[in-house]
Amino acid sequence: MTSLETSLDDNVVSPGFEAGKLAPQPAPGEAGVGGAESASQRGRGRAAARLLLRRSLVGIPSLLVISLAIFGLTAVSPFDPTAAYLNSPEFATQAQRDAVTDAYALDQNWFSAWWHWWGGILTGDLGWSSTRSQEVTTVIAQRLPYTLTMAALALISAAIIAIGLGAVIGMRQGGLLDRGCSALATILAATPPFVVSLLLVSVFAVGLGAFPTSGARKPGEDYSFGGLVSHGVLPYVALTVAMIPWLLLSMRAAVVEAVTSDAVRAALSRGIGGWTLLRGHVAPVSVLPTLALLGTRLPELIAGAAIVETVFGWPGLAESLVDSAVALDFPLLAALAVGAAALVLIGSALSDAAAVWIDPRIGLTA
């Protein structure tokens, strides 16, 4: 019996219904369980598609407003934008400053700069990065794979660990394992990622010498798979640890709530327990809040990646985002900031659509 069928049966159990007997069969003319389930899945799919469409209609204007705010903030910034293009800005002459201003059109109105920047996006020209001395498109193409690989592996690992461990400790609420994991997760949630990163460097890189301290390759060597793996272990662990606490605590709370539900109590009355109860009744309902949380925690993932990549010198876009903000590299900063905002909007929309598609209760009201 599937989890959906079991939950449907649980909902029709009356106080006088004896455990162990079959649920009442549908009357003649009523749709079978399989047909009703198929129709429900199609309805949830359409609801998820409508949700994605609405989020797209809202997301595009949101990106325009975010990018406009970035250029507006740069206009009131007290920093000198020409300093990023001069080797020694404190010794630069006025003629040199004027030449840089004319070459990069730094004296144009910020709204005009924003308008031309979007025009460049439509043609594939994102401008020139002063911190990398490359086209912004080249910087993104070279560094995006490093960030995507690291962030994806960390997010998947954190989700698997948090969902699995959170389900186990939630089923054993109040036990020694539950208290220990919850306390550790609370401590890690209050610990900044750079503290975890520095601790890993101190113990495993400096103390034990088991892993490199920074970078993605040895000096003078080309990038290799083995070098990337050995250099990427510590930043991967740091980023994974930064993502686990909130997901773990959310999964545990959802499991604790599901265990006290009427459906689970009815399953227990029929003698269902252990892993069968967890897999068929508790986990399908409890995992939904955690999936929804994944989309809302993407800003934390991006912020954590920026810190971790900076500490470990990992050649990703998050490190470039920090460098561009420090050096006033506005073309690269704008591209990365808008890209990060787009990633957050897309991730949030996909997580909500997945919840609508999976959970019949949400799908019927979407």
Topology:
Blueprint: H1 3-11, H2 33-75, H3 94-104, H4 110-123, E1 128-129, E2 134-135, H5 136-171, H6 176-189, H7 193-207, H8 225-259, H9 262-269, H10 274-296, H11 298-312, H12 317-326, H13 330-358, H14 360-365
Antiparallel strand pairs: 1-2
Helix pairs in contact: 1-9, 2-4, 2-13, 5-8, 5-10, 6-8, 7-8, 7-11, 8-10, 8-11, 10-13, 11-12, 12-13
Describe the structure.
There is one protein chain. Helices cover 73% and strands 1% of the residues. A hairpin with a 4-residue loop joins β1 (128-129) and β2. The two termini are 27 Å apart. The chain has helices spanning 3-11, 33-75, 94-104, 110-123, 136-171, 176-189, 193-207, 225-259, 262-269, 274-296, 298-312, 317-326, 330-358, 360-365, and strands spanning 128-129, 134-135. α2 packs antiparallel against α13 (330-358). The protein has a two-stranded antiparallel sheet with strand order 1-2. It folds into two domains: 72-100 and 109-125, no CATH class; 137-366, MetI-like fold, CATH 1.10.3720.
Fourth-tier CATH superfamily name of the largest domain: MetI-like
- CA radius of gyration is 26 Å
Category from helices, strands and their pairing: mainly alpha
CA-CA gap between termini: 27 Å
